[in-house]
Every structure is written in structure tokens, then in C-alpha cells.
Amino acid sequence: MAFTMHSHSGQFCPGHAKDQLEDIIKHAIAIGYKTMGLTEHMPRTELSDLYPEELTPSPEASLAVLGPRHEAYLAEAVRLQAKYADQIHILIGFEGEWLRSAYAPLIAELSAAPCIDYFLGSIHHACGVPIDFDRAMYAQAREACGGTEEKMYEHYYDEQLQMLQALKPRIVGHFDLIRLMSEDPGRELRGWGEGGVWKKVLRNLAVLEEHGGWLECNTSALRKGLEEPYPGRAIAEEWIKMGGRFTFSDDSHGIAQIATNYERGLDYLESLGVKEVWTFERATHPDTEGGVKAELIEKSVSITEFRGGLRLGKTE
Fold this sequence. Notes:
alpha/beta; TIM Barrel; 7-stranded parallel beta sheet; two-stranded antiparallel ribbon
């Protein structure tokens, strides 16, 4: 029973992703997905949080469209959830991006919508600057955090802690995204510097485990040139020691990226001794009744069963 818990479309993430949401869902069905979490990016509310491609022709116009686009996404997701209910179990969510603590009320408000099943707690910034957009902005973030990668990592995990404590997300997206553009993405964190970064990693994992959240094994790291998915091996090993659960995601941004590197990601989990991954099932599907959220049931899927459900063909 193959699935993803993290996906995007060009329809609701223009300039950053490709393809219409319905076409993405149809392709996911064709390659064997039985569950698909839709997690478009949440709207931002400050001009300073726009990405470079959003600054023209008008930053104000780019910002103004984000809220209505989110509402349009939810309406379309509900429609597709019902239309394809006999072929795929669609979960409706969003990527709750912690740019700073001021975004906590908005994330809470968005997650309260009756149609929302869950959100991904994720961090794409350090000291308010994007860390995964390009190397120039990564360098800018490093300088804002104190000028070294060690200080930058510490800021990243401190901000992640704020997110974990304030929002208690069911799933944390790409836990160690900070390493994507690092000068040494495979760095051994346990012996780095004075050990402050590693202590913060362990602290954050413990907080996540305490409230029963999951880590996603996110294969987009492999697509972007890293040797291991998110999270890297050292972090994954500590999570396993804590008894933590993994879900599984392609973090796709269009049809071409659905299930990309899934075989490698599953091999990675098996090399860690992981035998199952977790997803959700809505107790009432596909509709909510009377504006009441559907109950989410945690569902275990063995890696063997997951592999058996994939029909990758040329997509891998």
C-alpha cells in the first residue's frame, strides 16, 4: 500500500511546482498509491517573506493572492477527495511553515478548518532567511545567524523547537533540511564543534516523541543530490532508539517527481532496521459532516506491503 504524506502542485504552488492537482492525483493512482496527503504551502502574510520570483511585477499583488489561493486549494481538494474516493484515500493538509513565532496563530487557524486532516510542521528559514532556495540566500541566512554553519544549525534547531512546542504537529517535514546546501551535508553532527547542535537535535526529537509526532522519511533529499533522505542516518538512528515512528513522502512538486527515489528510500529504512511506516486513515471518508473534522486513525504499512503496491515503471 504505497502512499505519500507530502506533495505539492503547480496549480496551487505556481513558479515552484508543476501540473494540475487533479492530473497529479490521477498519476499517483496509476503508479499504485492508495493514500495521498495533499500539503500545499500555507499562505504567508508579510511582504518580507516573499521569494524573489514573487517580487515582480508587484509584491503586493503576489501577497494578496496567497490567502484566496489557499481557499481555492481547499475547495478543489475536497472536490477531488470525493471524486476519486473509490480509487485513492485523499488526506487534506498543508505545509505549516514556521517562519517565526508570529505565524503560530495563523497555522493554528488554518489547521482548524473542518476539511484539514493534518499539517506538516516544517522549517525553511533560519533567522527569517530561506535556507533551501539558493546558495546566495543560504549564505545570507548563515550571516544572519552569526556567520558560521554551526551557529546557523543551532538557530535552525532552536526555531524548530519553538514550532514543536507551540504547534505539536502530527508530522515533522524534512527534519534536517538545514543540511541541503551545507558545505558538508554529510557532516557527523555528534562530534561537531562543542556538541551544541547534536544536543539540540536530541532535545527536539525527544519533544516530538513526547507528543506522539512522526518523522517523515522524505526522499526529495535524494532527488536534490544528497546521499541520504531526510532525516540523515545519525538522526534516524536516535529516533529509532526513542521508539519513534516514520511516515514516508516524496515531497513531489509535480507528476515527474511522484515516487522519485522511493526504492532507495525504502532500502534506506530497511538498512536501519525499520520494518513499517505509518499513515492516516479518515474514519469518515470522503466527507465531513456538519463541519466536524474526520477522525484520523493511525495505520501501519509494512515496507514489504509498500513495495508490493508500487507500479513505478519508468518513474523511478
